[in-house]
C-alpha cells in the first residue's frame, strides 16, 4: 500500500465485551497514524496545521484481538486544492483487518474557510508519495 506505516499499541481498554477491539477504536488507530504522518512527512504536529477532518469512512473485515500487533499503512493518492485524501489499511499481525478513507481539509486560520494546501506541505507530500503534480491538482 502506502509509503508510510505506523505501529499502534492495542490497549486493554480498547477491548469490548465481545473480546476484541471495539469498532470505534479503529477510528482512533487511524487518527494516531494520521498524526504520525503529519509529524514525520510534514515535520509538524497535526495540531499546528490549520485543518479539519471533513470525512472518515471505515470498512471492517475482521476483529483485532488484544495480543495482536497492529500497523496502519497510509497512502495519499492525490491532492486537491485544499483537500488531502488519505487511504489506510489497518493490519493485525500483518493481515488486513480494515480499510479507511479520510479527507483532511486545510483552512485559512483567520476565516476558517477552505484554503489551498500550503506549498511547503504540498511539496513534502508530493515528494514523499511520489506524486507528479506538486504544483497542485484542482480536484476539490
TrEMBL record:
CDD domains, A to Z: 4HBT (cd00586)
One Pfam family from the record: 4HBT_2
Signal recorded as keyword: no
Keywords: Hydrolase
Superkingdom of the source species: Archaea
One MF annotation (Gene Ontology) recorded for this entry: fatty acyl-CoA hydrolase activity
Family to which the UniProt record says this protein belongs: Belongs to the 4-hydroxybenzoyl-CoA thioesterase family.
PANTHER family in alphabetical order: 4-HYDROXYBENZOYL-COA THIOESTERASE FAMILY MEMBER, NOVEL THIOESTERASE SUPERFAMILY DOMAIN AND SAPOSIN A-TYPE DOMAIN CONTAINING PROTEIN (0610012H03RIK)
Protein name in UniProt: Thioesterase superfamily protein
Species classification: Archaea, Methanobacteriati, Methanobacteriota, Stenosarchaea group, Halobacteria
Amino acid at each position: 500500500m502506502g509509503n508510510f506505516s505506523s505501529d499502534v499499541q492495542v490497549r486493554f481498554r480498547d477491548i469490548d465485551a465481545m473480546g476484541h477491539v471495539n469498532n470505534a477504536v479503529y477510528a482512533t488507530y487511524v487518527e494516531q497514524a494520521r498524526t504520525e504522518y503529519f509529524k514525520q512527512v510534514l515535520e509538524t504536529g497535526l495540531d499546528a496545521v490549520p485543518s479539519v477532518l471533513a470525512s472518515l469512512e471505515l470498512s471492517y473485515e475482521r476483529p483485532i484481538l488484544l495480543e495482536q500487533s497492529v500497523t496502519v499503512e497510509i497512502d495519499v493518492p492525490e491532492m486537491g486544492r485544499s483537500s488531502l485524501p488519505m487511504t489506510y489499511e489497518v493490519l493485525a499481525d500483518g493481515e488486513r483487518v480494515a480499510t479507511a478513507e479520510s479527507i483532511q481539509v486545510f483552512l485559512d486560520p483567520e476565516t476558517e474557510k477552505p484554503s489551498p494546501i500550503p506549498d511547503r506541505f504540498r511539496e513534502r507530500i508530493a515528494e514523499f508519495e511520489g506524486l507528479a503534480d506538486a504544483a497542485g491538482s484542482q480536484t476539490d
